[in-house]
């Protein structure tokens, strides 16, 4: 998204990609470092910072182009679809549905953790479809 969204302003794209890369590396460290295992609230904060930072470039696009610009709407539509699928997965995982409601029935297949993985994969497919639409839009829309 960042490469296509800020294709005409490479400095801004580089800055946002650098921040996202740093947050992603922090998330990787938070996943495996034993110090973070003892402090789950810090680990959660790192992941929330990575997810939350996604709103910054969207705000930038809206401020620069306006909310109803086709570029902004395309971006919001694609990211909203991805977010909805991911949020469904997180909700299933956090609530531990369906195994909480039906103990023993989903021990091997159909547990919330497995549904979460299905949602993450589905969100990646939604994001890919959005990225292809954004690529097509970028090819047809010259920089001004």
UniProtKB/TrEMBL annotation:
One of its GO terms (molecular function) is metal ion binding. The keyword Metal-binding applies. GO terms for cellular component: membrane. It is a multi-pass membrane protein. The chain crosses the membrane at residues 12-36, 42-61, 73-94, 114-131. It is found in: Membrane. Keywords: Membrane, Metal-binding, Transmembrane, Transmembrane helix, Zinc. Zn(2+) binds at residues 113, 117. It holds the Pfam family HlyIII. It comes from the Eukaryota. Belongs to the ADIPOR family. This is Uncharacterized protein.
């Amino acid at each position: 998204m960042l490469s296509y969204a800020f294709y005409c302003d490479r400095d801004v794209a580089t800055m946002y990609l650098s921040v996202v890369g740093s947050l992603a590396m922090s998330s990787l460290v938070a996943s495996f470092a034993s110090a973070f295992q003892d402090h789950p609230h810090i680990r959660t904060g790192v992941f929330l910072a990575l997810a939350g930072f996604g709103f910054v470039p969207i705000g930038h696009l809206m401020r620069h182009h306006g909310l109803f610009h086709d570029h902004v709407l395309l971006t919001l539509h694609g990211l909203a679809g991805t977010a909805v699928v991911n949020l469904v997965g997180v909700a299933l995982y956090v609530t531990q549905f369906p195994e909480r409601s039906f103990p023993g029935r989903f021990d091997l297949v159909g547990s919330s953790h497995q549904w979460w993985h299905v949602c993450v994969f589905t969100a990646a497919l939604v994001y890919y479809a959005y990225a292809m639409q954004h690529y097509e839009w970028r090819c047809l829309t010259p920089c001004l």
